[in-house]
Amino acid sequence: MNISLFITFAILIFACYLGVSARKGKEMNMEQWAVGGRSFGSLTIFFILAGEMFTTFTFLGASGMAYGVGMPAVYAFNCFYFIVAYWMLPPIWKYAKKHNVMSQADFYEKKYKSVGLGVVVAIIGVIASVSYLVMQFVGLGIIVSASSYGSISSGLAVVLSGLLVTVYVTISGMHGSAWTAIFKDILILGVIIFMGVYFPFHYYGGFKPMFQAIESAHPEMLLFPAEGLSITWFVTTSIMIALAFYLFPHMQTGVFSSKSAKALRWNAASMPIYQLIIVFSVFIGFAAVLQVPGLNDADMSIFKLAQGAFPPWFVGLVGGAGALAALVPSSIVLLSSATLLSKNIFKVWRPKTTDQQLGRLSRLLVPILVVIAIFFALNESKLIGLIYIMVYSIIVQLFPALFFSLLKKNPITKIGAFAGMIVGVILVIYSTVTDTTLATLYPNLPSMIKDFDTGLLIMMINFVVTYVVGVNTEKNFNKVTDGSLEKYQQVKG
Amino acid sequence: MKRRIWLYFFSLIPAIGSLTVINKIEPYVLGLPFVLFWLLLWVILTSFFLYIVNILDPANHEGEEDI
């Protein structure tokens, strides 16, 4: 084992130690495990939600995209997120607290008084979560393998990391995630800011000389192109991602574990400054453009630069930071999807399950989900690439029903919510599988319209469907089914 | 309640700003191409705007807010 790999693993094991020791003195019932007993104050919730900003995407993806295509990589930071967060999260939290909501599907189920809608939301959430997990594991494999200088295959690295995630999620639940999130962010910030400043100065003598050098070699990289990743693409994709970001089941879990709505507002206001750090990752990618040209895998640019410039122990540190960037979000994603599966799917199927059994089941589901994710991560095929593109577009389809449910008087019925979601998800799957976009349907449109984000467009269709169907299906349908729901909830307790 | 509506529109200013891209390399500001500088500027301003909204938001001063 070389020194860099040793350091990477030491960091991972320390993170697990933090996670496991966090459970001390807490009785681990379902609420503690799933939403940390709703006890997290401003600072902790900040690290949990902010931690989601710094995933393997930030680490490998943002620098890789800057290296590969240049300026469009800035879509990685987008302040629209926080305006959405400021207005949308506190009402969600308040409702969740009042009605003891523990998962995203619970939220829809209670808002629309429909168990079926809860199940649909849970299924959409789990599909999105597993795909998200797969991409994190693929990233983790690249990182660990790179920090071992190739002596560990990325396959083995994926399996080892899966093992680590399982152990700590099973034992510590949400509390573990909180502590590790803090440790992880400090490490990542340190490493990314340092490299983002060091490389431009070391190789080019500053930021301006670096960008000027790129400008003379590849002027097109410093601008948004006229077509494809154009400004329209940037704007619409930013909006779509900002709306989708907080709709992932694990983000909702993060919101539920907050102690107050105030903490969430403070969090939304502070996050943009924090997110600024991603720009350093973009700098690293730009620095790599002229220094390590011609890489097959753009995502490797950050490691190629680090290995060329630093001693192995530092590469190990970078590897450790990157690995945590995958580990922490993975653990939160696992928690929330295990909760969804047990609470919102299994319990509907077997209403008599006790809370204790549910808790045990959730924990049992963690290793199973990990094995599924590892399986797909190892067999990374074109299919997975497709699924990844779909993830954000699919999850954003939950937005219209959420939006209407947050209004003072919800104008739509559950049938509307249901219809919108189904239409949205089917359209996303269709457009992704057949590779249909506005650009392929109407190639003659100006690029200003053509580059409109497909996920956002479908969400708008979904919005209209939800409203039209939702307003026109009468409440008497609700009356018919309300009785069965009450019966169900009596059994559920 | 009325105040919240004003605050809502106020908070949308950085969204409009950050989604308005000025696609130019020149002039360089702080060593960054203009387009990059512009987008970064709005990230910082978003925090500034949201802090103001947060301070003025009546919801933060209601007793029953934080149960």
Please provide a written account of the structure:
Chain A: Keywords: Membrane, Transmembrane, Transmembrane helix, Transport. Chain A: The chain crosses the membrane at residues 6-22, 43-67, 73-93, 114-143, 149-169, 181-201, 231-248, 269-293, 313-341, 361-378, 384-403, 415-434, 454-471. Chain A: It is found in: Membrane. Chain A: It comes from Lysinibacillus agricola. Helix content of chain A is 77%, strand content 0%. Chain A has helices at residues 3-21, 30-35, 42-51, 56-69, 80-98, 104-112, 115-147, 154-204, 207-217, 231-245, 249-256, 261-275, 278-291, 301-309, 312-349, 355-378, 382-395, 399-406, 414-433, 438-441, 447-450, 454-472, 475-492. The longest helix of chain A is centred in the middle third of the chain and has 51 residues, at 154-204. Chain B is built from two helices and no strands. By secondary structure, chain B is an all-alpha fold. Chain B has a domain at 22-59. Chains A and B meet through helix 5, helix 9, helix 10 and helix 12 of A and helix 1 and helix 2 of B.
Topology readout:
The complex is a heterodimer of chains A (493) and B (67).
Chain A: H1 3-21, H2 30-35, H3 42-51, H4 56-69, H5 80-98, H6 104-112, H7 115-147, H8 154-204, H9 207-217, H10 231-245, H11 249-256, H12 261-275, H13 278-291, H14 301-309, H15 312-349, H16 355-378, H17 382-395, H18 399-406, H19 414-433, H20 438-441, H21 447-450, H22 454-472, H23 475-492
Helix pairs in contact in A: 1-8, 1-15, 3-8, 3-12, 4-13, 4-15, 5-10, 5-12, 6-7, 7-8, 7-15, 7-16, 7-17, 8-9, 8-13, 8-15, 8-16, 9-13, 11-15, 13-14, 15-16, 17-19, 17-22, 19-22
Chain B: H1 2-18, H2 34-56
Overall pLDDT confidence of chain A? 79
Structural class of chain B: mainly alpha
Give the percentage of residues in beta strands of chain B. Answer: under 5%
Low-confidence stretches of chain B: none
The major pleated sheet of chain B works out as: none
Keywords:
heterodimer, A: 493 residues, mainly alpha, Sodium/glucose cotransporter, 2 domains, 23 helices, 0% strand, disordered C terminus, B: 67 residues, 2 helices
